[in-house]
Write a structure and sequence with these properties.
The chain has 7 helices and 4 strands, in the order βααβααβααβα. It has a 4-stranded antiparallel β-sheet with strand order 2-3-1-4, with helices on both faces. Bound molecules: inosine-5'-diphosphate and magnesium ion (MG). The site of inosine-5'-diphosphate has 9 residues, from loops.
């Protein structure tokens, strides 16, 4: 394993239901370090660009509307094998299929309002982190 960075979003349903602290606790207790974080209410352009890879999926417009429906908390997490570790903490996209004890199994409202986002590979992690943060805004082992 190597030291990795991944992008996390606590989605509008998670912020609305006061779950920021509980979700950050799961990251920290699993050894993931929050090295950048901010709250934002995404514009349509920001959400569409972030999810551009899904622009041809039937749920794209609904997804963008949902992601712009309220504030989110965007963070960069750092740790050994952070990308996979974070995905394991999150659980499957559909909360009905998510393993017990995962964030989505415990908190998600639906397959769309599934409480958290996490990058799925090194390339997407790099793109997603750069979509929301400048290099000078991170405070991890490699810099800051
Ligand atoms: P992921 O978030 O687990 O990586 P993706 O397939 O990348 O899942 O989908 C991105 C987001 O789009 C999901 O987290 C969810 O909010 C939404 N989404 C995915 N599949 C569906 C669907 O079938 N119906 C409605 N929304 C969906
Ligand atoms: Mg994804």
């Amino acid at each position: 394993m190597s030291l990795e960075r991944t992008l996390s979003i606590i989605k509008p349903d998670g912020v609305r239901r006061n779950l920021i602290g509980k979700i950050f606790t799961r990251f920290e207790e699993s050894g993931l370090k929050v090295i950048a974080t901010r709250m934002a209410h995404l514009s349509r352009a920001e959400a569409e660009g972030f999810y551009a890879v899904h622009s041809h999926r039937p749920f794209f417009n609904d997804l963008v509307s949902y992601m712009t429906s309220g504030p989110v908390v965007i963070s960069i997490l750092e740790g050994e094998g952070a990308i996979l570790r974070h995905r394991e903490l999150m659980g499957a996209t559909d909360p009905k299929k998510a393993a017990p004890g995962t964030i989505r199994a415990d908190f998600a409202e639906s397959i769309e309002a599934n409480t958290v986002h996490g990058s799925d590979a090194p390339e997407t992690a790099a793109f997603e982190a750069s979509w929301f943060f400048r290099g000078t805004e991170t405070f991890g082992a490699k810099q800051g």
